[in-house]
Amino acid sequence: MYKNDKVIRRYSEPFKLKILDELTTGKLNKYQLGKAYGIAPTTINEWIKKYNRKDLMNTRVTVKTKDEITRIKQLQKEIEQLKKLLLKKDMDALVDESYLEVAAEQLGYKSVIDLKKKLNTKP
């Protein structure tokens, strides 16, 4: 054998399904099944995707205490309040700019910038 020779393994459909069935029972996890049958856990993951068995994929479970849940709710409420304040500030700035545009037009200025210059100069 040569140094770079790789063994290519082909698994039958029934064998793949058998592994997924064993995984479904929950007696062995992917790593244990991989060790028992000489299969990489990533190969088992590929089979899970191939056969659309998302129920067998690892899922992340987050356990939270009541204090954490309360704190998260408070933070979410605070975020909503800040969003509303930011929106109000943006709307106020837009209204102010609109007032200046109308005032500049009625007072005969070419632009709002000219009006602002006039207002900022002190006699």
From TrEMBL:
InterPro entries: Homeodomain-like_sf, Transposase_8, WH-like_DNA-bd_sf. Residues 65-92 form a coiled coil. Pfam families: HTH_Tnp_1. GO terms for biological process: DNA transposition. Transmembrane segments: none annotated. It comes from the Bacteria. The keyword Ribosomal protein does not apply. GO terms for molecular function: DNA binding; transposase activity. The keyword Transcription regulation does not apply. Keywords: Coiled coil. This is Transposase. It comes from Psychroflexus halocasei.
